[in-house]
Amino acid sequence: IDYYRDKDPARLEKQLELSDIRIIDGIPTAMRMVMHNRSDGTQTEMEFLEVEYDLTLDDAMFTERALKK
Question: pTM of the full predicted structure?
């Protein structure tokens, strides 16, 4: 996925690379993601070891107080 600068649409700002795509519960899921910052030459990588969908989450997890923890 290519991300361009708002003020200069011709300038490539970042690129997101998705890999290790697996079908989990019928959903194509990228297990590895790398965001390349083309402005400064850095990158951030994320890798998922486990993914679960359709989990029941308690509403209390999303209160302002809980989110500050």
Answer: 0.73
